[in-house]
Amino acid sequence: MKARSSEDENPLRKKMSRRKALSTAGKVAVGVVVAGVVAGVGGYYAGSAAAAPKTIKETVTETKTVTAAATTVRETVTETVTAPGAATTVTAPAKTVTVTKTVAAPGAARPYEGVKLTVLCHTGVQAGPWHAYKEDIKNLFGIDLEVVEAPPEELYSKGLLGIKSKPADYDLVQFNSAWIGDFEPYLLPLDDYVEKADPGWGDVLPGFRLFRNMWAGKIYSWTLDGDTFMFYYRKDLFDHPDEKEEFKKRYGYELGPPKTWDQVRDIAEFFTRKAGDTLAGSKLKKDFFGYADQAKRGRVYYWYFFRWIPYRAAEEGGIPHYFDPDTMKPLINTPASVEALEAMKDILQFSPPGVLGFEWTELFTAAMSDSVVAMWIHWPDEGDRFQDKLKPLPVENPPTPELGFCPIPGVEKDGKLYRYTPIDTCWELGIAKNSENPDAAYAVLYFLMRPDNALERVMAPTAKIPSSNHDPYAYSQFYSPRWRAEKPWVGPFLDAELEALKSPYPLLRIPGGFEYLDALDLAVSECLSGAKDAKTALDDAAKKWDEITDKLGRDRQKEFYHKMWMVPLVF
Amino acid sequence: MNERRVAYSLMLPALMVLILAVIFPLLFSINVALRKYDLRLPTEEYPFIGLGNFVRAFYDSYFLHSLLITVEFIALGVALQLPLGLGVAVLLSKLSWRRYVIPAIAIPALTPPIVAGYMGIILFHPDGVVNYFLSLLGVSSKIPWYSSPNTALITCVLVDTWQWYPFITLVLLAGILSIPPEYVEAARIDGASEAGIFRHITLPLLKGVIAVALIFRMLEMLRVFDVIYIVTYGGPGTATQVTNFYSYLVGFHYWDLGYASAIGWILVIILSVFVTYYMKAFRVS
User: Architecture of domain B34-282 in CATH?
Assistant: First the structure.
């Protein structure tokens, strides 16, 4: 007879076959579920009928703020709240709570209880705020928010088809302001809503308000991300006394942040040096370059526009046009336009080799990490991050790295300086006209754009929002004492951005915008690569612009172009 | 139920999948190609324009130029990849320990093309590895590989070659190893040199395999997108704007889906004709 082992005696240590183990686990699970259901049902009946209401022992005063969209009326109401665990059929109040509310309509604490909304947004970090605020939106409004993410290249088609359908697939949609001509028929104008409950329309800087959110004189969207192009320079280099002295000796004026493109060329030429030369009083370890653009095919048109706008403004004596507003004849191949492109090509001789392959990363790396570029233009990323990203100059005894920033240079003509900051066509939030719950959608928009929440978004990373990639766009953000106190290095940069945004200029926002800009991009790339001269390249681009205009309907495009400019041009 | 019915009922699920996943999208894309299907037009119904989009392509200088660039890309790619792949295959066929080398050689082919593109940028960066080795050989100037219109296309071809020559190597190696050793032994006994054996035995017997390997590569190169998108974005200018990339711009940047579909179908037609004649020429069946 086989002796029983200790394992046999101890049921906990008893070995089981896999089949038996699974079978036992299954039985246990079923048992637990059945027990849970029985207990739950029993508890429900016990709670509703048999369980005695909790005794009121004290009156608790609790203050909480509930915000809804439609109005910002603050009122105090007394609410009856049941005791924890007691069922809703219990009539006796367990606790009296004094609630301070900001409500849409008197007594409406969660005014959109049960409403389900869908938002289509940019995938990745841009979606961060939506996820961070999802629960708050549920708590405040009772809205179940479904967040649908899409990569930027899919946002157009997905967004357009989504808001076209009836009812709309997406109640709220994140879109690029360049698409407004296509999206307009399916977007809800927000003027009436803003009139009733304003999350801070006047707080948004005019450049964004007029050139991104407004269309044909109406409000169609709210800025989510206020990208601003800035001119960056190596302040540690510009402030070096040897360099200042030498520059003045050679060019006859003080070295400082350039105001014109002619000055940029001078400074770029001055600072372009070979490894072994002296820079900032010390021996260079690598070749150093005066200036760099993000000149890779695809987005090089931006860098052309930085020149084209002031050159054309000087040519016209004021804010320039992309098209003749009467005939829609393209104005991108005028003599000043050609001059701007030639100037752009000329200055690239002071750029690192391979600059025609520079995209965002390459420019950021060359300027900030390798520190081999004296001046460049980029989005606000450098300004926000220079504290920990800017590396010392590649010399034997580098000065403490310092980044300078100023508005994009302009063109001087007849004693007048024409200087503008292009307002990038960037991310906006709109509401679908075909939404089944436009009021609820506006409540969400209002919540996200409220100054406190908007600040949190643009300040990210914060405890609430780990990342957002949203840049500031409202006065309350630029002047935020909290932001400036928590990140002191940001203050001067925000001031520079504000200065730059005093002279905004809109990028093209009519239907076919991308095709127009891509045709221009190709022309610029062809010229910079030497395939065509500036005049031929721009003439070809203008021809292509005409073709696009005809394809999409000249009269219709003209109407859209007028709508684009239907803003008060007073800043 | 008779056998025929059983057979049909068993085929039905697969047939349904085929219709839904292959036939329907194909028919839909033909429908799109025959319409002025432009998302920017404020219309619910996109007008039928017959062969309008197809005709337009032959007047579109960018499309015609992109065809030329595509042909150049394929020609350069084949010219590099076939000798390299064949050379490595012959070399591997002589090694008894090739089983340890083959996985390493296959690594590039397993890399996602987007990663290969980024690797290309790193390798061919003006301050990258390639220029570093060239500087050791005395080339002092930094070649702007992918940012010069003169070298951008060849850079993309080199990246594609790095990634895909192992495919040709592996296919040809399988072909070489399947050649009966008696042929080679008989030739050796007759006093044939190694070069002679390669020329008169190995190569003729590999003809069919080479034809198949090349057709696969050419079809793949015709569809090249990722490397171009990452490394050059079709530039500088239109130096690397292959047809597939151009159709991407038309479809997903300009939202002219009708024209983009037509470009796709033109490629399919060109391909079908080419493959038919190619198969006939090489007698591959």
Answer: Orthogonal Bundle (1.10)
